[in-house]
From TrEMBL:
Gene Ontology biological process terms in this record: glycolytic process; tricarboxylic acid cycle
Pfam families given in the database record: 2-oxogl_dehyd_N, E1_dh, OxoGdeHyase_C, Transket_pyr
Gene: sucA
Lineage: superkingdom: Bacteria
Protein name according to UniProt: 2-oxoglutarate dehydrogenase E1 component
CDD domains given in the database record: TPP_E1_OGDC_like (cd02016)
Source organism of this protein record: Isoalcanivorax pacificus W11-5
């Protein structure tokens, strides 16, 4: 009875069956050093009863323990892990064999045949030589235990073991995975690679399918090359295996039940993927070559930057494919894709990433050279940005533009080494072995779906025609291109292989190529799995947000009683929740604001904007490096219990089944995080998506995103985006890097109503501005010059009534001087300087000067400003006052709008300037210098100097 119990336990548990050798090795390591095994296994082994004095109820575990102990003694564990002697010479050699197995797993990729051209410089790897481990040719026919090698039997000759290892790790596949800490992942990968020697036997149907995909890849490039000779297209010649690779990613993903795949890639091979994978009409592509544009509203873009979407059929059903639009800034598309994927996953309540998968196709030089790649990897497992793992494919041309020498291109052995930072497995594969490419694609996709982590395929190929079709590559790589010139294409080599194996005839191969060319001649779709009538439930409906005119005065009021009820809900904290002392004071003040006993400050107004939007069904997402608290401690949207450190987010607890309120302190990145939020916002039109810079100055770390996506995405690609940027801005003597959000840069980018740039100066204004951004169906990026000192300024307050009624006012009129006829001077300004001007006017008892705030600088509200100023019939001077130097801020970009208004009032009037002199840096570094400059510009505004 007891014996059968033991047998059942061993057979049914994870420590029995095919895992016994693995568990045995773990236990052996545990006996020598408990810290050498994973914590869960250590805990399991610690619970095993001792052999001595076992009671009857302990017999099952006692038997297991005795088995472990016996195995540990019989195998040379002491020498393996440090310690005493081993009994026989054969046992010593057994240990050396185990070391040899480990060496191949660690370093076999370094001698693998990965380069189709045979030019890759490889170092000698002594670890892989028998002599290095005290073994020789004489040992090849000796039988050894195979340990945890997946060779299919517990014992094998050394020759068989070496053949298995060389086939698995040193052929046209070179796998790097031993940097992974998780033992289960490593064992999973070993099983997949070693059990088939990295080269499974595929049937005739699959092999013909691979050839058909290679035929399509080569056929399109040849067709375009002959029809449009010398025209830039960044063709795929030399990397044709990418097409069967991507095809298998999609088909295998579909078999797992994946519903959407979002692709990001730069230029090389993009047209090929668009036509041969996503099913773009060849006729449309030819039209683009001949000058046709498909974006009549804006500038349009070159054909190899265009995105596309379609649906294809897979064994698991219909899969929606979306290729992101991408500028020439290569890797910047990576975080954009991740953001789009995250939004799609949240829409599907796909918390694990089972239904939406990101696929990123990189170039080798960009992958190694551009920092945004590292930033994107760093985001991959964080709460606010993870997407359940990305499949990365590197089209490794072995040349970056004209740089090919490894000592010039990078400091690492492989272009993929950056991926090791997140313990991604890396599969290097020879692009001229399409079946090996097909195999690693299957393993990579399975790994991603199994472990929900990033995985990398390094498709090592070459570039047959140079950086683009107009280049002459032999000028800089003469030896490489001498090899390339004489090398048959990947398709030719594989077709010859299949003909030799009797899979198809030479005529069938030629017919396959002819059929593809005929389809191109007719302009037909060439993707057989393309769904002609796609399931529209897989799409995002943007129609409610397109075609609207810009209307600034949008009603964003909210019922007062309901506003107070929402505020009351936010004030209810869980029982036993202990807020920090200063935070408690902020919460108490907010209670008073709700009761109308205290003026409303910025943090309260902003919080209530989010609460009211959530109440009306708009999700909110807010990220940045310190957004939970707020860099200047004004927000405190995330509260931390001082007893146990647990976080509580009141805005997530307004009521059951409310829209999501997501708020995440991001990693210390501007570029990748802002790009992620751009991608998210272009996929979630109903959400209010906000990125906040720690200081507005730091947005320049994401300038590529601002220039290439936020300001011009609609003009280039007709991509609508409602992303909001909160950029703290204001001169408080904190120096050149903590004063200016570089307002002038945003204004220089403004044209064609592409975005909004606003400088709200009261809590009510930010309340209505944020609400307008979500409620108004127009979707344009919003750039907010948000305050720092105004967050607590005694005069920068609003009332509940101002929140409840009204709208965002693009111009705030003078409200203290009642007699308009007394006004002889108007000072126009934006932002914090208004309060400095107000205090100066009161101190000097000036009664003839009105101060008018321009709260929206783009689109500039000329008509509204005219309406505010036309009441001043005795006007003699108009001044624009700004804190920024003359060559910065709004002066150069907006003065023509103000001059238009002034000229309408009186052609004799001139617009004057009051502000800092032109400067190279945004602000002074010394407080005394700052104060002197600030005093002077305020006095200049009133004409007191």
């Amino acid at each position: 009875m007891q014996d059968s119990s033991i047998q059942r336990q061993l057979a049914s548990s994870h420590i029995g069956g095919s895992n016994a050798a693995y568990v045995d090795e773990l236990y052996e390591a545990y006996l020598t050093d408990p810290n050498a095994v994973p914590e869960d296994w250590r805990a399991y082994f610690e619970k095993l009863p001792s052999v001595e004095g076992s009671v009857e109820s302990d017999l099952p575990h006692s038997a297991v323990r005795e088995y472990f102990l016996l195995q540990a003694k019989n195998r040379s564990r002491v020498q393996k892990f440090g310690g005493g002697a081993v009994s026989t010479e054969h046992e010593r050699r057994q240990v050396r064999v185990l070391h040899l197995i480990a060496a191949y797993r660690n370093r076999g990729h370094q001698v693998a045949s990965l380069d189709p051209l045979g030019l890759m410089e490889r170092e000698q790897v002594p670890d892989l030589e028998l002599a290095h481990h005290g073994l020789s040719q004489a040992d090849l026919d000796t039988v050894f235990q195979t340990g945890n090698l997946f060779i299919g039997k517990p014992e094998a000759t050394l020759r068989e073991i070496v053949d298995c290892l060389r086939g698995s790790y040193c052929s046209t596949v070179g796998a790097e995975y031993m940097h992974i800490v998780n033992t289960a992942e490593k064992r999973w990968l070993q099983q997949r690679l070693e059990s088939v020697r990295s080269h499974p036997q595929y049937g005739a149907d699959i092999r013909k399918h691979i050839l058909e995909r290679l035929t399509a890849a080569e056929g399109l490039e040849k067709y375009l090359g002959s029809r449009y000779p010398g025209t830039k297209r960044f063709g795929l010649e030399g990397g044709e295996s990418l097409i069967p690779l991507v095809d298998e990613v999609i088909q295998r993903a579909g078999s797992y039940g994946v519903k959407e795949i979002v692709l990001g890639m730069a230029h090389r091979g993009r047209l090929n993927v668009l036509v041969n994978t996503l099913g773009k009409s060849p006729a449309d592509l030819f039209g683009e070559f001949e000058g046709k544009t498909f974006n009549e509203r804006g500038s349009g873009d070159v054909k190899y930057h265009q995105g596309f979407s379609s649906n294809v059929q897979t064994p698991g059903g219909e899969v929606h494919l979306a290729m992101a639009f991408n500028p020439s800034h290569l890797e910047i598309v990576s975080p954009v894709v991740e953001g789009s994927v995250r939004a799609r996953q949240e829409r599907r309540v796909d918390d694990n990433g089972d239904q939406v998968v990101p696929l990123l196709i990189h170039g080798d030089a960009a992958f190694a050279g551009q920092g945004v790649v590292m930033e994107t990897f760093q985001m991959s497992q964080t709460r606010g940005f993870k997407t359940g793992g990305t499949v990365h494919v590197i089209v490794n041309n072995q040349v970056g533009f004209t740089t090919s020498r490894r000592e010039d291109a990078r400091s690492t052995e492989y272009c993929t080494d950056v991926a090791k930072m997140v313990q991604s497995p890396i599969f290097h594969v020879n692009g001229d072995d399409p079946e090996a490419v097909f195999f690693v694609t299957q393993v990579a996709m399975d790994y991603r779906m199994q472990f929900k982590k990033d995985v990398v395929i390094d498709l090592i190929c070459y570039r047959r025609l140079g950086h683009n079709e107009a280049d002459e590559p032999s000028a800089t790589q003469p030896l490489m291109y001498k090899k390339i010139k004489s090398r048959p294409t990947t398709r030719t080599l594989y077709a010859e292989r299949l003909i030799k194996d009797g899979v198809l005839s030479d005529d069938e191969s030629s017919q396959m190529a002819e059929e593809y060319r005929n389809m191109l001649d007719q302009g037909l779709h060439v993707v057989k799995a393309l769904v002609r009538e796609p399931n529209k439930a897989l799409f995002v409906d943007w129609s409610p947000y397109i075609g609207h005119e810009v209307v600034d005065d949008w009603d964003t009021g909210f019922p007062l009683k309901k506003l107070q009820n929402l505020a009351a809900r936010l004030e209810q904290l869980p029982e036993a929740f202990v807020p920090q002392r200063q935070v408690k004071k902020i919460l108490e003040d907010r209670n008073k604001m709700t009761a109308g006993a205290l003026g409303i400050n910025w943090g309260y107004a902003e919080t209530m904007a989010y609460a009211t939007l959530l109440d009306q069904g708009f999700p909110v997402r807010l990220t940045g490096q310190d957004v939970g608290r707020g860099t200047f401690s004004h927000r405190h949207a995330v509260l931390h219990n001082q007893k146990n450190g647990e976080a509580y987010v009141p805005l997530r607890h307004l009521y059951d089944e409310q829209p999501s309120f997501e708020i995440y302190d991001s990693l210390l990145s501007e570029e990748a995080v802002l790009a992620f939020e751009y991608g998210y916002s272009t996929t979630a039109p109903k959400s209010l998506v906000i990125w906040e810079a720690q200081f507005g100055d730091f947005a320049n770390g994401a300038q590529v995103v601002i220039d290439q996506f936020i300001s011009s995405g609609e003009a280039k690609w007709a991509r609508v985006c409602g992303l909001t940027l909160l950029l703290p801005h204001g001169y408080e003597g904190q120096g050149p890097e903590h004063s200016s959000a570089r307002l002038e840069r945003f204004l220089q980018l403004c044209a064609e109503h592409n975005m909004q740039v606003c400088v709200p100066s009261t809590p009510a204004q930010i309340f209505h501005l944020l609400r307008r951004q979500a409620i108004r169906p127009l979707r344009k990026p919003l750039v907010v010059m948000s305050p720092k000192s105004l967050l607590r300024h005694k005069r920068a307050v609003s009332s509940l009534e101002e929140l409840a009624g009204g709208h965002f006012q693009t111009v705030l009129a003078e409200h203290e001087i009642q007699d308009a006829t007394a006004v002889e001077r108007v000072i126009l300004c934006s932002g914090k300087v208004y309060y400095d001007l107000l205090e100066k006017r009161e101190a000097e008892e000036i009664t003839n000067t009105a101060i008018v705030r321009v709260e929206q600088l783009y689109p500039f509200p000329e008509q509204r400003l005219f309406e505010v100023m036309e009441q001043y019939s005795n006007l003699k001077s108009v001044v624009w006052c700004q804190e920024e130097p003359m060559n910065q801020g709004a002066w150069y970009c907006s003065q023509h709008h103000m001059r238009n208004v002034v000229a309408r009032l009186d052609p004799k009037l001139n617009l004057e300037y009051a502000g800092r002199d032109s400067a190279a840096a945004p602000a002074a570094g010394l407080m005394s210098q700052h104060v002197a400059q600030q005093q002077k510009l305020v006095q200049d505004a009133f004409g007191l100097n």
